[in-house]
């Protein structure tokens, strides 16, 4: 299954509704989530699971920051 821009509309709606279009707000929440993951008990997630989840969140954060930078460069 390949993603099309229209498939991302719910994600765009989330940005608008929950972060008022402020992508930096989303990155701050992602930073907090990554930080909190490091303090979860190892009974909940193994070390490798924790690393993998943090990696996914960091990749998402980097993608959002790239969009933010590109928006500001075009403005």
Structure description:
With 75 residues, the protein is mainly alpha-helical. The protein has one domain. It is built from three helices and no strands. The radius of gyration is 15 Å and the shape is globular. The N and C termini lie far apart (33 Å). The model has no long low-confidence stretch (mean pLDDT 87).
Task: Quickly list its features.
72% helix, globular, 0% strand, 75 residues, mainly alpha, single chain
Structure at a glance:
This protein is 72% helix and 0% strand.
- Specify the overall morphology: globular
Overall mean pLDDT: 87
The percentage helix is over 70%
Supply the number of helical segments: 3
Question: Low-confidence segments, ≥5 residues, pLDDT <50?
Answer: none
Q: Domains counted in the coordinates: how many?
A: 1
Would you tell me the structural class of the helices and strands? mainly alpha
Written as H for each helix and E for each strand, in order along the chain, the element string is: HHH
Q: Note the main sheet.
A: none
What does the radius of gyration come to?
15 Å
Question: What portion of residues belong to β-strands?
Answer: under 5%
Q: How far apart lie the N and C ends?
A: 33 Å
Q: How many strand elements?
A: 0
